[in-house]
Amino acid sequence: MKSKFLRLLAIVLCFATLATFVACNDGGDQETEQTTETTTGSTEGTTEGTTDGTTEGTTEETDFVTPEMTVEESGGVATVTTTKGLSYTVSGYESVNGAAFVFYSGLEFNFSADTFSEKFNRLTLNYRSNAPVHIYVTYANHIGEETVADFFIEKGEGDFSGLILDYLDKKTATSITKIVVDTCENKKASFTLYHVSTEKIECYTGSYGNTKYYINNDSFKLGVDMSWGGAICYIADLTCNIEGLENLVNKADEGRLIQQSYYGTPTIPGVYEPGEFNGAQWNYNPVQGGDKYGNDSRIVDIVVTDTSIYIKGQPQDWSLDGAITPSYMENWYILHDDHIEVKNRFVDFSGWNHPVTTQEIPAFYTVSYLDTFVWYDGIDPWTNGELSYEGSLNFWGDSRYAADCTFTLRQSNTEAWCAWVNATTNYGMGVYVPNADVFFAGRNAYNGTMDPDDGACGYVAPLKKLKLVSYDALEYSYMIATGTVDEIRNTFTENKDFATNEALEKNSVSIRYPDGDLDLSDMDFSNEKYCGIFTSPNNTMLEYDATEQALKCTVTGGDPYAAIEFGSSQTVYNAESYGTIEVVYMIPTTNSTTNYSMELFLSTGSTASAVGGKSVTRPLVADGEYHTLTIDVSGLAFWSGTINQIRFDYFSGAAVDDVLYVKSIELK
Prior knowledge:
Elements: H1 4-14, E1 25-26, E2 29-30, E3 69-74, E4 77-82, E5 87-91, E6 95-97, E7 100-103, E8 107-110, E9 122-129, E10 133-140, E11 146-153, E12 156-163, E13 174-183, E14 189-199, E15 212-216, E16 220-225, E17 231-237, E18 258-261, E19 276-277, E20 280-281, E21 286-287, E22 298-305, E23 308-314, E24 316-317, E25 327-335, E26 340-348, E27 353-367, E28 372-375, E29 388-390, E30 406-408, E31 417-421, E32 427-432, E33 438-444, E34 457-469, E35 474-484, H2 485-494, E36 508-509, E37 522-524, E38 540-545, E39 550-555, E40 562-565, E41 580-586, E42 596-604, E43 615-620, E44 626-632, E45 643-649, E46 659-667
Antiparallel strand pairs: 1-2, 3-4, 4-5, 5-8, 6-7, 7-14, 8-13, 9-12, 9-14, 10-11, 10-13, 15-16, 16-17, 18-27, 19-20, 21-24, 22-23, 23-25, 25-26, 26-35, 27-34, 28-29, 28-31, 30-33, 31-32, 32-35, 33-34, 34-36, 37-46, 38-39, 39-46, 40-45, 41-44, 41-46, 42-43, 42-45
């Protein structure tokens, strides 16, 4: 069983990646090391590593002077010549304004056979587009066969760079003959092609078949696996003297690592049909490392310096077999003296309407030797307050333990870091993600091994509940530090302002816990602070409605629910003390139907979270008026001991955008 299961199942239950340089090899002939060959116009104006106008991180921005362009039309074909020495013909357009071609689809740029005659493995387009586009580049591969590589380009103006399809096989190409441009949004667009350049860059891999690449400074050695989308597969603390401990990252398969992974739409009839996983229909799930069948993700671009790596990849869809997603993941890995900085960027080009759901930012796997989970659970951040420790966490993907693996941050807690350390040596590795809301952590098959390829591992995912928006970049940064707990904390404290991750607030719903210890036996949602007590909503948007002075629950996908974690309270609630549960609610008449029921999963005693057979179901009235639903729980055999969680599956048969207002929930 692949370990991706361990992570993804848990999300469903709870909330829903310097070796010696090897020169590029073309058909077995050794090329000159670090040689850059360029074609027409050379690489002047090419922003190395800049993608879609992004110059952050390891990229180095250079000025591109827009060339003067001459356009001559004849019989629906335009001939374009630029002062940078590039000439091409254009067809498939509706009109032209200067050198901007207006089209619906199939805009075609053709080049003469001698325009690009030198070997290359990377091409750069300088462009302007008023909409996101999908381009198809036709070139001759290393044995002269016609090959088509497709790329997505964001709306805007700048440089886009992409690698040929067999870059990782150390091949080169020649002779770009055609570039076809389609719109992503199925509507009229305008596109200008200022320049195309090619170059042959290093192949950042080891010996043939080894797709790992490493960088290091005096403190760290970091490795990424190109076949796994450039995900982090190796982190070594070069100052650590613990015998046998080298790589701190578990890399047993493409589902582990330290990597990006996001969750989107369920089935869209006639448009998108995801596969199954763990016996259930899965959702759209771009995963940096690959899919559950072991298919590799695609490398689109790469830029490397002595102490940094920029990598752009096109991930696989987890539940499908070899279905590359219409999305890009970008990663900047930067080594500092005392920490590793990572910047992540994700753009989805599907055009689909995704639900609000819980996202891993990022997925973070460690070797089993790091057995103890550490985090700060207070409301006075960065004051060296007492830390919390969990030394025997179970498997996070088991519904019996999922609630125990959930650590929700308080509203005022900006000290959003956690670590996995060894209980004996107090040594480990931590991750700091500003603006994360929850840490979801656990251990699988714990055996204490230092082996990064062993099935046993530790896991944590800082979480944020948000909606993926097509064509809109999702960006955030995080920091990795190693050492003792105090050293890790000091590093994060000294660098706490390295990023704010304010962008994570866009299209998001807070799932933090209020600072105070609220009375969970009498929850009055006219008091806005109570609206934050639900920490695990699934396909549900929760917000305070000032007009109704109530909690507004909006359905965003199938199987909507939200849970209250009584175990997060400092107060212990005993089931035998409460005989009924009263819910005051209202269902608007504007909803899709009037036929609803609510199911409450009651988790008490040794049951930590929702389990089949331990629930009650009651019908609801949908007439736009407030009603009191009274549920007698006094005679239930499973209503005994400490109350751990109550999960409200508040609508059966609901449609997206259906709404339920909750005025209060009381245990009486």
